[in-house]
Amino acid sequence: MGMGKYLLIRIINALIVLSIVTLVVSALFVKMAEKDLENRIQELVNSEYQSLLQQNKAPSDPEKWREERIAYYKHQFKLDRPYWWRVLYYAKRTILLDFGNTRIPIFGTERNVKNIISLALPRTILLFTTAQIIVIIIGLLLGVKAAQKVGSLFDRTLSILALITTSIPMWWFGMMMLLIFAFKLGWFPANSMPDPNLTGLAHVLDVAKRLVLPVTTIVFVLFGGWAWVTRNIMIGTMQEDFIMAARAKGVPERKVIYGHALRAAAPPIVTMTIFSLLGSLGGAIITESVFNWPGMGRVYWIAIQTNEINLVMGLTFISVALYLIGVIIADISYGFLDPRVRVGASASM
Amino acid sequence: MVRWVDLKDSLSNFWFEFKRQKTGILGVLLLIFWILVAIGAPYITEPDIPEKWRSIWIEYPKTVPPTWVGIFSGVSEAPQYVVPPEELQKYVRVEGTKVIVDIPYNMKYDVPPQDIVIMGISGNSTHKRLKPSLTLKVLRPDGEEITLVSGLKIKGTTNIQVARDSSVRKTVINWVKQKTGIQLDPTKEFQLVTTLDTLKVVFAKLSPDMLDNPQALKGEYHIILEIKTPKGTSVDLSNTKLILTGRTYGYLGTDDKGRDLFAGIVWGSRVSLTIGIATAVLTVLVGIFYGVAAAYFGGWTDELMMRFQEFMASIPSLPILILLGTYFGGHIQLWQIVLLLTVFGWVGIARVARSMAYQIKEQTYVEAAIALGAGTGRIIFKHMVPQLLPYAFAQMALNVPSAVLSEASLSFLGLGDPTQVTWGQILHDAQNAGAAVNGYWWWVIPPGLAIALVALTFVLLGTALDRVLNPRLRRL
Question: Residue A222 and residue A142: Cα distance in Å, rounded?
Answer without folding.
Answer: 13
